[in-house]
Each structure stands twice: as structure tokens, then as C-alpha cells.
Amino acid sequence: MKVRSSLRSLKRKPGSTVVRRRGRVVVVNRTNPQWKSRQG
């Protein structure tokens, strides 16, 4: 999982959803788990 300062480019990928978990912003992509990342 990548830790990034901005998730804007990752949330535009097909199949990605933005989720808030424990105060962190997480991008989860089920079609391509390579784009899984968190912010914060």
C-alpha cells in the first residue's frame, strides 16, 4: 500500500472507491489492487 500526499490521481482510476478508515483516507481498488493507497 502506498502512502501518498494526494489521492486525486488514484480516485479517477476505474474501479476505485474512496473510504475513510480510522481518520485516514484510503483508496481501495478491487479491479487493480496495485492502486491501493492511504493518505494521512
From TrEMBL:
Gene Ontology MF, one: structural constituent of ribosome
Short name of one Pfam family: Ribosomal_L36
One GO CC annotation: ribonucleoprotein complex
InterPro entries noted in UniProt: Ribosomal_bL36 (IPR000473), Ribosomal_bL36_sp (IPR035977), Ribosomal_L36_bact (IPR047621)
Gene Ontology BP terms: translation
Coiled coil: none
Keywords noted in UniProt: Ribonucleoprotein, Ribosomal protein
Kinase found in the keyword field: no
Keyword Protein biosynthesis tagged: no
Family: Belongs to the bacterial ribosomal protein bL36 family.
Name recorded for this polypeptide: Large ribosomal subunit protein bL36
Organism: Micromonospora phaseoli
